[in-house]
Design a protein that fits this description.
Strand content: 15-25%
Number of helices: 8
CATH class of the domain at 8-37 and 98-204: Alpha Beta
Bound molecules: adenosine-5'-diphosphate, guanosine-5'-monophosphate
Order of helices and strands: EHEEEHEEHEHEHHEHH
Strand order of the largest sheet: 2-7-1-8-9
Radius of gyration: 18 Å
Shape: globular
Largest sheet: 5 strands, parallel
CATH architecture of the domain at 8-37 and 98-204: 3-Layer(aba) Sandwich
Number of strands: 9
CATH superfamily of the domain at 8-37 and 98-204: P-loop containing nucleotide triphosphate hydrolases
Helix content: 40-55%
Length: about 200
Protein backbone atom coordinates (compact mmCIF):
# COMPACT_ATOMS: atom_id res chain seq x y z
CA UNK A 1 0.00 0.00 0.00
CA UNK A 2 1.22 3.52 -0.75
CA UNK A 3 2.49 5.85 1.99
CA UNK A 4 -0.16 8.27 3.27
CA UNK A 5 0.72 11.62 1.71
CA UNK A 6 1.94 14.17 4.25
CA UNK A 7 0.05 17.36 5.00
CA UNK A 8 1.00 20.76 3.63
CA UNK A 9 0.90 23.23 6.52
CA UNK A 10 1.18 26.95 5.86
CA UNK A 11 2.12 29.29 8.71
CA UNK A 12 1.63 33.03 8.14
CA UNK A 13 1.37 36.10 10.28
CA UNK A 14 2.84 39.58 10.54
CA UNK A 15 6.57 40.05 10.82
CA UNK A 16 7.70 39.62 14.42
CA UNK A 17 4.63 37.64 15.51
CA UNK A 18 6.83 34.61 16.18
CA UNK A 19 6.42 32.32 13.16
CA UNK A 20 10.06 31.24 13.13
CA UNK A 21 10.10 30.72 16.89
CA UNK A 22 6.92 28.62 16.76
CA UNK A 23 8.14 26.58 13.82
CA UNK A 24 11.42 25.74 15.57
CA UNK A 25 9.57 24.75 18.78
CA UNK A 26 7.11 22.67 16.73
CA UNK A 27 9.94 20.73 15.11
CA UNK A 28 11.30 19.86 18.54
CA UNK A 29 8.08 18.08 19.50
CA UNK A 30 8.23 14.30 19.33
CA UNK A 31 6.20 11.85 17.23
CA UNK A 32 5.94 14.08 14.22
CA UNK A 33 7.49 13.83 10.83
CA UNK A 34 7.95 17.47 9.83
CA UNK A 35 9.93 18.84 6.95
CA UNK A 36 10.61 22.57 6.64
CA UNK A 37 10.40 24.02 3.17
CA UNK A 38 13.44 26.28 2.78
CA UNK A 39 12.43 29.32 0.78
CA UNK A 40 14.42 31.28 -1.73
CA UNK A 41 14.89 35.02 -1.22
CA UNK A 42 16.64 38.06 -2.64
CA UNK A 43 16.97 39.76 0.76
CA UNK A 44 20.34 40.13 2.49
CA UNK A 45 21.42 37.44 4.88
CA UNK A 46 21.00 38.37 8.57
CA UNK A 47 23.70 37.74 11.10
CA UNK A 48 23.47 34.12 12.22
CA UNK A 49 21.61 32.95 9.12
CA UNK A 50 23.01 30.27 6.84
CA UNK A 51 22.53 29.83 3.11
CA UNK A 52 20.67 26.57 2.47
CA UNK A 53 19.42 26.36 6.06
CA UNK A 54 17.38 29.51 6.71
CA UNK A 55 16.93 30.46 3.06
CA UNK A 56 18.53 29.98 -0.32
CA UNK A 57 19.90 33.49 -0.84
CA UNK A 58 19.97 34.44 -4.53
CA UNK A 59 20.24 37.53 -6.72
CA UNK A 60 17.16 39.18 -8.19
CA UNK A 61 18.19 37.97 -11.69
CA UNK A 62 18.42 34.36 -10.49
CA UNK A 63 15.04 34.66 -8.76
CA UNK A 64 13.30 36.11 -11.84
CA UNK A 65 14.81 33.34 -14.00
CA UNK A 66 13.32 30.72 -11.69
CA UNK A 67 9.90 32.36 -11.87
CA UNK A 68 10.08 32.13 -15.68
CA UNK A 69 11.07 28.47 -15.44
CA UNK A 70 8.00 27.75 -13.27
CA UNK A 71 10.13 26.49 -10.38
CA UNK A 72 8.07 28.04 -7.57
CA UNK A 73 4.92 26.73 -5.91
CA UNK A 74 4.28 30.39 -5.03
CA UNK A 75 6.25 33.60 -4.85
CA UNK A 76 5.69 37.16 -3.64
CA UNK A 77 7.33 40.47 -2.95
CA UNK A 78 7.61 41.53 0.68
CA UNK A 79 8.90 44.97 1.72
CA UNK A 80 11.23 45.30 -1.28
CA UNK A 81 12.46 41.70 -1.62
CA UNK A 82 11.31 38.55 -3.40
CA UNK A 83 10.50 35.31 -1.59
CA UNK A 84 9.41 31.98 -3.06
CA UNK A 85 8.80 28.30 -2.29
CA UNK A 86 10.70 25.82 -4.50
CA UNK A 87 8.06 23.41 -5.83
CA UNK A 88 10.08 20.22 -6.35
CA UNK A 89 11.10 19.77 -2.70
CA UNK A 90 7.56 20.30 -1.40
CA UNK A 91 6.00 17.56 -3.53
CA UNK A 92 8.95 15.20 -2.96
CA UNK A 93 8.67 15.50 0.84
CA UNK A 94 4.87 15.18 0.87
CA UNK A 95 5.11 12.03 -1.26
CA UNK A 96 7.47 10.58 1.36
CA UNK A 97 4.74 11.12 3.98
CA UNK A 98 6.33 14.19 5.61
CA UNK A 99 4.28 17.05 7.04
CA UNK A 100 5.69 19.92 5.01
CA UNK A 101 5.68 23.30 6.77
CA UNK A 102 5.81 26.56 4.82
CA UNK A 103 6.44 29.82 6.66
CA UNK A 104 5.28 32.41 4.16
CA UNK A 105 3.46 35.73 3.85
CA UNK A 106 -0.22 36.14 2.94
CA UNK A 107 -0.03 36.63 -0.82
CA UNK A 108 1.95 33.40 -1.23
CA UNK A 109 -0.39 31.55 1.13
CA UNK A 110 -3.38 32.46 -1.04
CA UNK A 111 -1.54 31.10 -4.11
CA UNK A 112 -0.86 27.83 -2.28
CA UNK A 113 -4.54 27.43 -1.28
CA UNK A 114 -5.56 27.90 -4.89
CA UNK A 115 -3.04 25.41 -6.28
CA UNK A 116 -3.33 22.89 -3.43
CA UNK A 117 -6.77 23.25 -1.80
CA UNK A 118 -5.99 20.41 0.61
CA UNK A 119 -3.30 22.57 2.27
CA UNK A 120 -3.92 23.74 5.86
CA UNK A 121 -3.56 27.48 6.40
CA UNK A 122 -2.80 28.68 9.93
CA UNK A 123 -2.54 32.38 10.73
CA UNK A 124 -0.53 33.38 13.80
CA UNK A 125 -1.96 36.41 15.59
CA UNK A 126 -0.14 38.72 18.05
CA UNK A 127 -1.55 39.18 21.58
CA UNK A 128 -1.44 42.96 20.95
CA UNK A 129 -0.42 45.18 18.06
CA UNK A 130 2.34 46.68 20.17
CA UNK A 131 3.86 43.23 20.75
CA UNK A 132 4.90 43.19 17.08
CA UNK A 133 6.97 46.33 17.48
CA UNK A 134 8.44 45.14 20.78
CA UNK A 135 9.33 41.73 19.37
CA UNK A 136 10.91 43.11 16.20
CA UNK A 137 12.85 45.63 18.23
CA UNK A 138 13.92 42.90 20.66
CA UNK A 139 15.02 40.60 17.81
CA UNK A 140 17.42 43.33 16.75
CA UNK A 141 17.80 42.17 13.15
CA UNK A 142 16.21 45.10 11.33
CA UNK A 143 16.76 48.86 11.31
CA UNK A 144 14.05 51.11 12.77
CA UNK A 145 13.08 52.09 9.23
CA UNK A 146 12.54 48.46 8.13
CA UNK A 147 10.71 47.65 11.38
CA UNK A 148 8.25 50.46 10.69
CA UNK A 149 7.69 49.26 7.11
CA UNK A 150 7.01 45.75 8.39
CA UNK A 151 4.58 47.06 11.04
CA UNK A 152 2.81 49.09 8.36
CA UNK A 153 2.41 45.96 6.26
CA UNK A 154 0.99 44.04 9.24
CA UNK A 155 -2.32 45.93 8.91
CA UNK A 156 -2.84 44.48 5.45
CA UNK A 157 -1.74 41.03 6.59
CA UNK A 158 -4.14 40.92 9.56
CA UNK A 159 -6.96 41.55 7.08
CA UNK A 160 -6.10 38.24 5.39
CA UNK A 161 -6.51 36.20 8.58
CA UNK A 162 -10.19 35.57 7.78
CA UNK A 163 -9.15 33.58 4.69
CA UNK A 164 -7.19 31.07 6.75
CA UNK A 165 -8.48 27.71 8.02
CA UNK A 166 -7.26 28.36 11.58
CA UNK A 167 -6.01 31.24 13.72
CA UNK A 168 -3.67 30.80 16.68
CA UNK A 169 -2.63 33.58 19.09
CA UNK A 170 1.07 33.56 19.96
CA UNK A 171 0.92 34.75 23.51
CA UNK A 172 3.06 31.93 24.89
CA UNK A 173 5.08 29.89 22.41
CA UNK A 174 4.38 26.49 24.01
CA UNK A 175 0.62 27.07 24.08
CA UNK A 176 0.62 28.16 20.44
CA UNK A 177 2.59 25.04 19.50
CA UNK A 178 0.11 22.84 21.46
CA UNK A 179 -2.73 24.31 19.43
CA UNK A 180 -0.94 23.70 16.14
CA UNK A 181 -0.34 20.06 17.12
CA UNK A 182 -4.06 19.73 17.95
CA UNK A 183 -4.97 21.17 14.54
CA UNK A 184 -2.64 18.73 12.76
CA UNK A 185 -3.99 15.76 14.71
CA UNK A 186 -7.58 16.75 13.92
CA UNK A 187 -6.75 17.23 10.24
CA UNK A 188 -5.42 13.66 10.08
CA UNK A 189 -8.84 12.46 11.30
CA UNK A 190 -10.75 14.31 8.55
CA UNK A 191 -12.96 11.77 6.83
CA UNK A 192 -11.85 12.59 3.29
CA UNK A 193 -8.19 12.31 4.26
CA UNK A 194 -8.36 9.19 6.40
CA UNK A 195 -11.21 6.88 5.44
CA UNK A 196 -10.37 5.60 1.93
CA UNK A 197 -6.81 4.82 2.88
CA UNK A 198 -7.92 3.10 6.07
CA UNK A 199 -10.58 0.93 4.42
CA UNK A 200 -8.02 -0.12 1.83
CA UNK A 201 -5.62 -1.04 4.63
CA UNK A 202 -8.06 -3.14 6.65
CA UNK A 203 -9.17 -4.96 3.52
CA UNK A 204 -5.58 -6.05 2.94
CA UNK A 205 -5.37 -7.73 6.35
P1 LIG B 1 8.68 36.06 12.77
O1 LIG B 1 9.35 34.81 12.26
O2 LIG B 1 7.19 35.94 12.78
O3 LIG B 1 9.13 37.31 12.09
P2 LIG B 1 10.27 35.54 15.17
O4 LIG B 1 9.99 34.10 15.40
O5 LIG B 1 11.59 35.91 14.60
O6 LIG B 1 9.09 36.21 14.30
O7 LIG B 1 10.03 36.28 16.57
C1 LIG B 1 10.28 37.68 16.70
C2 LIG B 1 10.87 37.93 18.10
O8 LIG B 1 9.82 37.72 19.07
C3 LIG B 1 12.01 37.01 18.47
O9 LIG B 1 13.00 37.76 19.15
C4 LIG B 1 11.35 35.96 19.37
O10 LIG B 1 12.28 35.46 20.32
C5 LIG B 1 10.24 36.76 20.04
N1 LIG B 1 9.04 35.96 20.38
C6 LIG B 1 8.45 35.00 19.65
N2 LIG B 1 7.37 34.49 20.27
C7 LIG B 1 7.25 35.17 21.43
C8 LIG B 1 6.32 35.12 22.51
N3 LIG B 1 5.29 34.26 22.55
N4 LIG B 1 6.50 35.97 23.55
C9 LIG B 1 7.54 36.84 23.55
N5 LIG B 1 8.47 36.94 22.56
C10 LIG B 1 8.32 36.12 21.50
P1 LIG C 1 11.88 37.59 6.70
O1 LIG C 1 12.60 38.60 5.85
O2 LIG C 1 11.48 38.17 8.03
O3 LIG C 1 12.66 36.30 6.82
O4 LIG C 1 10.53 37.22 5.95
C1 LIG C 1 9.63 38.23 5.57
C2 LIG C 1 8.29 37.63 5.23
O5 LIG C 1 8.40 36.78 4.08
C3 LIG C 1 7.73 36.73 6.34
O6 LIG C 1 6.33 36.97 6.45
C4 LIG C 1 7.99 35.34 5.82
O7 LIG C 1 7.06 34.40 6.33
C5 LIG C 1 7.78 35.55 4.35
N1 LIG C 1 8.36 34.49 3.52
C6 LIG C 1 9.46 33.73 3.77
N2 LIG C 1 9.64 32.84 2.78
C7 LIG C 1 8.63 33.02 1.91
C8 LIG C 1 8.25 32.37 0.69
O8 LIG C 1 8.87 31.43 0.21
N3 LIG C 1 7.15 32.84 0.07
C9 LIG C 1 6.42 33.88 0.55
N4 LIG C 1 5.33 34.23 -0.15
N5 LIG C 1 6.73 34.49 1.69
C10 LIG C 1 7.83 34.08 2.37
Amino acid sequence: MSVERGLLIVLSGPSGVGKGTIRKALFERENHNFSYSISMTTRNMRQGEEDGKDYYFVSKEEFLKRIDEGKFLEHAEFVGNYYGTPLDKVTEQMDKGKEVVLEIEVDGAMQVKKKMPESILIFILPPTKNALYERLKGRGTESEDVILKRIERSNLELGYAKNYDYVVVNDEVDKAVDKIIEIINAEHCKTNRFLDNYLEKINEK
